[in-house]
Write a structure and sequence with these properties.
By secondary structure, the protein is mainly beta. It has no helices and 10 strands. Strands 2-10-9-4-5-6 form a 6-stranded mixed β-sheet, with no helix packed on it. A 4-stranded antiparallel β-sheet has the order 1-3-8-7, with no helix packed on it. The radius of gyration is 13 Å and the shape is globular.
Length: 113
């Protein structure tokens, strides 16, 4: 499976970004997908998940600020990030939940204060 993330960038605190991920998985529509993030020196952490039926499960740190959505026909999953904080700065990845290798290249999100 190939995963390609895009949409990252530099944004000021309080700003917004929308990340996109496209998957080559054959049975994407039945996969639980997630967005993960990693700061250098730290482990990759799950930020939020979206079930096959669109139900989302955000982690506490992003609840109310980040929203996931998916388009099963396009095999894409999105992460709308609002009210960004400097601590959201990381490389963001999408993958199944639980994750499978290989990971994509990720997309860098940098939030300046």
């Amino acid at each position: 499976v190939q995963l390609v993330e895009s949409g990252g960038g530099l944004v000021q605190e309080g700003g917004s970004l929308r990340l996109s991920c496209i998957s080559s998985a054959e049975f994407f529509s039945s996969d639980t997908m997630g967005w993960y993030r990693q700061v250098p020196g730290n482990q990759r952490e799950l930020v939020a998940s979206i079930l096959f039926n669109g139900v989302t499960i955000p982690e506490e740190s992003v609840k109310g600020r980040f929203t996931l959505s998916r388009d099963n026909a396009k095999k894409m999953v999105y992460l709308q990030m609002n009210s960004l904080k400097p601590e959201d700065t990381a490389v963001y990845y999408c993958n199944r939940v639980p994750p499978h290798d290989p990971w994509g290249q990720g997309t860098q999100v940098t939030v300046s204060s």
